[in-house]
Structures are given as structure tokens and as C-alpha cells.
């Protein structure tokens, strides 16, 4: 990988690996718990692989995997069997590896002797760290440094690279016999008894060692991730439904979003942000984190506030072509790795995203619609105006992108693979490119700013932003609409030509309300047509297009977050049946994927294969995929709060027997019940009127509110 450029997807981890995740840490291992060298397995923290090998041997033989017992997202138990004892045909030695990931690793190792005779064993743990940057591993281009030093002492091993100022310390209790690269235990496991050891892997960053979050020095339930998870579970809304699939999927989504939260070190009271997904994107992303926090608003609004604050703190202030930073611009990605040649910007912010900036303003507006954090939102208003200044300075009249150097991403919308934007004949579009959905985001950002002005009593500023939104809407519907095709172009290329492929992007335009009402039926028909709808979701690209490939990343696959926004857009314009088909198609897919929607899956038709086909390098868990079921429920509820105007719309579709208790709204906790006779809400703040009908698609515009 050359800096931030896209060079294809990382190698597949395969379905025989296990991923554990907590905040900015994760672990990828085999099903027996080993982490094998030569691939992507290992323990990662702060974008550095602090362990590249972790192999357990009993009498110099590997442990056979029996079962993995997943628990919390950061915790799993690996059950295995050692080779049969001398002269025996069957194993009598059970191996239990109880593993916790977070800020490093803790592993409690137990050998249980199931025979009536003591077992004398040599237990070896082979340990290595290549101190590789995440970018290197992801691209399969690890540049091995020559100064990785391994030192053994009475507590374990110390592994450090001087040039990268990174490494790890491995300590064990009871103390092992340690030699460079191996921890050795010579033990006797009593008949019908057990032997146990605890191992802890502490990261070393910039020369400073920090203890793993699940320390062996205090009970597991006292670890910070465990306390945070307990609070997350206690404070989150509870859902009771007769739909087993929906209940399981929502529970998994809540758990995954809780595990992907990122907390600022040393700032425990600051609301968290959220990482984009495991294993390769365990960091703050502008677009991903903003859309995730938007879709998760009915679960927790702290994610939106924390994400907005963190992005505001990293908002561009200077012009830098290498990172594509510009004043007012919101970043694309933030990394923590050591700055090395293979990844010259690791550890810094990269700003190559055309949509993070309008999405920042949109989420600010939506958070205010929910009546939350009025003072904090006001504090962030200068960042809103700086973002809008960047948009206005870049839009002519449409907001477009072209990378600043050959180190940047070629495509800078959400379909950011190098071939993700193409014409109907498959020709790749040339920049600068103005994407359809980005104009929708900008439109919604302008409307949000008009509402802020309205609430502040500034009628002149309100009129200015409303007029700007209307001009953009008119221009968009004139330039992007393809009357002979009956759909919107995915974008405009550098020559101003409409990029005429039939793609899912226009569904986002329904979501933001920029689509003319008389054209919305055509858009809905196209999105649910056989060439677009697979039976599980809307494909990113129609089967009739030249670049279509159901196994591609962006040219024919199905993305849950894409579909969640499309469903919201369809419901906004009154296409209830179409939105319902997408929502329940995705829930059917989630059931097959073990209740967890992956980042994406292949776009094969449901009629061709019985189950949805996995995409081999899909992230799981992935933030906006995890938030998608929560957004789908909001869509099916037709739940639209507008607290500054004293209104809440609620008119459920096919959600009978659903009860949501403790949903946060305007500082209160409300309860929603959907039954055969309609829906009720209890606990609404004073002065808020419940409207049991869907919100009109045009009520976002001030002049028709």
C-alpha cells in the first residue's frame, strides 16, 4: 500500500479465524487460539501488530481445536485437546485458553487432566512480534525491521524495535523458563486435576509500556472494558418483540457498537467516538463514524456527540496536499501507527473524503432535531460554519473531488475503490467527479444550517441558506436526471458528462430529500427492479451495467448501510412496501450471518443460491453495518422527532408486538409500543406533540415546515 491509495482489498482471513475486538485493539487467530506467522493473524493495538506469533505446544505438538465459545466481543474461550498421552489412543488432556483482548491481551491457560494418572508435560508458548504497521499487514507488504530485540528474564519476554519505538512485554504467572522467543513451563498436571497459568501482553508505544486493560492483578469484572460494557448494557434501551430474528439482530448490533466505541485516553468523561470496523479499520473515520452515529441515534446519542467533538478537534486548518487537509474540511481517516516509509502518513489524519464534511453538518442538525446537547451543539457551531465555508469554496455549484497527489484515494465518496465510479459501459469515470449522493448531503447540510438560523432568530441567514438549498436542489434535478433512463446519474465526470450507470447512490438522495417528488416513483421502481434488488438488498450496481460483478467490492455487492439509508429514503417518500422489502431482506440475511450483518456480501440473486454469499474480506463487526438494523427499525416505525418544533411523528409499518423502553429523546427516556391498533409513546417531554402519521418528505425545508 502506497500511503492512502486503494490497491484492492486485503487478503481474506478465511472462515477458520476468530476476531476479538475492543476499542482500538483487536486479535485475529486460528480456532485453536494460535496466532500463526506469515499472514494477518496477531494482536494489534494503536495500528501496530504487537504480537505476530503466539503458538501453544504441549510436548512439542500443537493443540487440536475442539470448540470456540464466544462471549463478549473482546472475550472468547478456546477449547482444545492435547495429543494422546504416551501409550494412549485418545487424548486425556483438555486445554482451555480463556482470552481477553484490550490494550494488549490477557490469556488464562488451563490444562485439565481427565485421566487417573498424573501427566508430566512441557508446555511451550512460541512468541514473536514484527512490530508491523497495520497498513503493511493489510497490504501484505511487511517491511521487516532488523533491530527487533528479544530479551528473556524471570517474568517472561521483552520484545522491542528501537527504530520504531514499539514492542511488547509478555509476563506470566507462575514464572516460566524463558528463552528468546519461547516461554517454557515444565509441569505435572495432577490426576483428575488442573494446572493453570496467566499470561499478559502489554504494548510498548513510543518507548512507554502500558498494562493490558484486562490485567492479571485485579478481577476481570473490574477491568475498564467490562465496566463500560456493563454501563452500556444498563443504559441502552430495551427491546421486546415477538420477532425472534429482529430481537437477536438488534441485540448483536448493540453489543458490536458497544465494543467498537473509542475512548480518549485520560479523558474518561468525554463521550466516545466509534471505530469503523474490525479488523482493519479500528480507528475514527469521518464518513463511517458519522453515518454510524446517525443510524444509532435511537440507541445512544453520546456516539454522535463524541464523534462530532473529536472530528471538530481534527478539522482542517491548513492546506497540505499530501494529507489533503484544507481549512474547514473534516477528515477521512485517523491513524495511530508509527510513521514509516511504507505508510508515510500513519499516525496522522488524512482528509481525502468529499462527503465527511457535509455529513458533519447533517449529524449536527439531526442531533439538534432530537433535542440533545443544546449547549454542546452551540459550542460546535463555529466548526459547522467552517465546514460550510469549505463546501461553498469547493462547490461550483456541485461539490466534487480530485485527489491532490498520487498518494491519495482516487475515489473519495463511499464507493472509494479505484473502479467504484463508472459509466454504464464499464468505463471508469475521470475526475473531478461530483457524486449524486454528495449533492444530497450538501443539500441536507444547507437545510440544517437554515434551521439553526431559524432557531437563533436570524431570518436573513435563514433565508440565505434556504435559498442556497433550493438552488442546489433545482440544479441537481436538472443536471443529474437522465430522462431517457428514468433514474439519476451516479455523478458528473470532469467534462461535465452524466455518469450514466444505474447504481444505488440515488437511494441516498431520497434519504436527504433532494429528489423531486414527481421523479421519486421512478427511482423507487428502479431500486427494486430485478437488476438492482437481489432479494436480500439493493446492489451497488445493476446487473445490466458493464462493470457489474456480484463478487466485487463496489460494483454489484450488497452493503447493509447503503440499504438502510435507501430504505429510509423510500419510506420518506411514501414507498412503504419497497422499504419493507429491503428491511426484511436484510434481516433474513442477518439471520444467515449469525445475527450480525457484515460490511457487505455478494450480490448474487436470492433465487440462484439458497443463502447470501459472504464477501471474503468483509469486516465483521463493522460499525455502519451494526447500526443498520437500528436504522431499519426507526424506518419501519416511521419515527421522526423534531423537538425544536415540538413534534414527533410515529406511524409503524409491520412492527406489531414491539416495545422499546428507555429510548433517549430530549433528555428524557421514552417508551414506544407498536400494536395492532397503532402506536403509543409514553414519557414524552412536556410540550411535545405526538403525530400518528408519517412525516411529509418535504417538511425538512423551512418554507413548508
UniProtKB/TrEMBL annotation:
Identify one Pfam family in the record.
Answer: GDE_N_bis
Domain Putative glycogen debranching enzyme N-terminal per the UniProt entry, residue ranges: 20-199
Where does the Mannosylglycerate hydrolase MGH1-like glycoside hydrolase domain start and stop, copy by copy? 431-588
Protein name per the record = Glycogen debranching N-terminal domain-containing protein
Whose protein is this, by species?
Streptosporangium oxazolinicum
Q: What is the lineage of its organism?
A: Bacteria, Bacillati, Actinomycetota, Actinomycetes, Streptosporangiales
Amino acid at each position: 500500500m502506497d500511503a492512502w491509495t486503494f490497491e484492492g482489498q486485503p487478503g481474506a482471513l478465511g472462515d477458520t479465524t476468530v476476531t476479538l475486538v475492543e476499542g482500538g485493539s483487536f486479535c485475529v487467530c486460528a480456532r485453536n487460539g494460535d496466532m500463526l506467522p506469515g499472514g494477518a493473524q496477531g494482536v494489534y493495538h494503536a495500528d501496530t501488530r504487537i504480537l505476530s506469533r503466539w503458538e501453544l505446544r504441549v510436548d512439542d505438538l500443537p493443540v487440536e481445536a475442539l470448540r470456540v465459545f464466544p462471549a463478549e466481543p473482546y472475550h472468547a474461550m478456546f477449547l482444545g485437546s492435547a495429543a494422546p498421552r504416551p501409550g494412549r489412543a485418545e487424548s486425556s488432556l483438555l486445554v482451555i485458553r480463556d482470552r481477553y483482548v484490550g490494550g494488549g491481551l490477557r490469556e488464562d491457560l488451563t490444562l485439565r487432566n481427565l485421566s487417573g494418572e498424573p501427566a508430566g508435560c512441557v508446555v511451550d508458548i512460541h512468541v514473536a512480534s514484527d512490530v508491523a504497521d497495520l497498513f503493511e499487514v493489510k497490504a501484505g507488504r511487511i517491511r521487516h525491521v532488523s533491530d527487533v530485540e528479544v530479551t528473556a528474564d524471570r517474568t517472561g519476554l521483552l520484545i522491542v524495535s528501537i527504530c520504531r519505538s514499539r514492542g511488547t512485554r509478555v509476563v506470566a504467572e507462575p514464572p516460566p523458563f524463558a528463552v528468546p522467543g519461547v516461554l517454557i513451563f515444565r509441569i505435572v498436571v495432577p490426576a483428575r486435576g488442573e494446572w493453570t497459568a496467566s499470561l499478559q501482553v502489554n504494548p510498548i508505544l513510543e518507548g512507554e509500556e502500558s498494562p493490558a486493560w484486562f490485567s492479571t492483578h485485579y478481577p476481570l469484572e473490574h477491568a475498564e472494558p467490562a465496566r463500560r460494557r456493563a454501563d452500556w448494557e444498563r443504559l441502552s434501551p430495551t427491546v421486546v418483540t415477538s420477532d425472534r430474528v429482529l430481537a437477536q439482530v438488534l441485540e448483536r448490533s448493540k453489543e458490536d457498537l458497544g465494543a467498537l466505541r473509542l475512548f480518549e485516553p485520560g479523558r474518561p468523561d468525554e463521550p466516545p467516538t466509534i471505530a469503523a470496523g474490525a479488523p482493519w479499520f479500528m480507528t475514527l473515520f469521518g464518513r463511517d463514524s458519522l453515518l454510524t452515529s446517525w443510524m444509532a441515534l435511537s440507541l445512544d446519542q453520546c456516539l454522535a456527540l463524541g464523534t462530532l467533538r473529536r472530528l471538530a478537534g481534527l478539522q482542517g486548518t491548513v492546506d497540505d496536499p499530501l494529507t489533503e487537509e484544507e481549512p474547514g474540511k473534516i477528515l477521512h481517516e485517523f491513524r495511530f501507527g508509527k510513521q514509516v516509509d511504507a505508510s508515510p502518513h500513519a499516525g496522522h489524519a488524512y482528509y481525502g473524503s468529499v462527503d465527511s464534511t457535509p455529513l458533519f453538518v447533517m449529524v449536527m442538525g439531526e442531533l439538534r432535531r432530537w433535542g440533545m446537547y443544546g449547549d454542546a451543539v452551540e459550542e460546535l457551531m463555529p466548526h459547522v460554519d467552517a465546514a460550510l465555508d469549505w463546501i461553498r469554496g469547493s462547490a461550483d455549484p456541485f461539490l466534487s473531488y480530485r485527489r491532490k497527489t498520487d498518494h491519495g484515494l482516487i475515489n473519495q465518496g463511499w464507493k472509494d475503490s479505484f473502479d467504484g465510479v463508472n459509466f454504464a459501459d464499464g468505463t471508469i469515470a475521470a475526475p473531478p467527479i461530483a457524486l449524486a449522493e454528495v449533492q444530497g448531503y450538501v443539500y441536507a447540510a444547507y437545510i440544517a444550517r437554515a434551521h439553526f438560523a431559524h432557531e437563533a432568530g436570524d431570518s436573513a441567514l435563514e433565508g440565505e441558506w434556504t435559498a442556497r438549498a433550493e438552488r442546489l436542489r433545482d440544479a441537481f434535478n436538472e443536471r443529474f436526471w437522465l430522462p431517457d433512463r428514468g433514474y439519476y446519474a451516479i455523478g458528473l465526470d470532469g467534462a461535465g458528462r452524466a455518469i450514466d450507470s444505474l447504481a444505488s447512490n440515488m437511494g441516498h438522495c431520497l434519504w436527504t430529500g433532494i429528489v423531486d417528488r414527481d421523479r421519486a416513483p421512478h427511482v423507487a421502481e428502479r431500486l427494486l427492479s430485478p437488476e438492482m434488488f437481489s432479494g436480500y438488498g439493493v446492489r451497488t450496481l445493476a446487473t445490466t451495467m458493464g462493470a457489474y460483478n456480484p463478487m466485487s467490492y463496489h460494483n454489484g455487492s450488497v452493503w447493509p448501510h447503503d440499504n438502510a439509508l435507501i430504505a429510509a429514503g423510500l419510506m420518506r417518500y411514501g414507498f412503504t412496501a419497497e422499504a419493507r422489502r429491503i428491511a426484511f431482506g436484510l434481516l433474513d440475511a442477518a439471520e444467515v450471518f449469525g445475527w450480525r450483518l457484515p460490511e457487505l456480501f455478494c450480490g448474487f440473486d436470492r433465487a440462484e443460491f439458497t443463502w447470501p454469499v459472504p464477501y471474503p474480506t468483509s469486516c465483521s463487526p463493522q460499525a455502519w453495518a451494526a447500526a443498520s438494523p437500528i436504522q431499519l427499525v426507526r424506518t419501519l416505525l416511521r419515527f421522526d422527532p423534531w423537538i425544536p418544533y415540538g413534534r414527533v411523528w410515529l406511524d409503524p409499518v409491520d412492527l406489531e408486538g414491539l416495545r422499546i423502553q428507555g429510548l433517549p429523546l430530549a433528555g428524557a427516556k421514552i417508551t414506544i409500543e407498536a400494536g395492532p391498533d397503532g402506536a403509543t409513546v409514553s414519557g414524552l417531554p412536556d410540550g411535545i406533540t405526538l403525530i400518528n402519521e408519517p412525516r411529509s418528505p418535504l417538511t425538512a425545508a423551512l418554507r413548508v415546515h
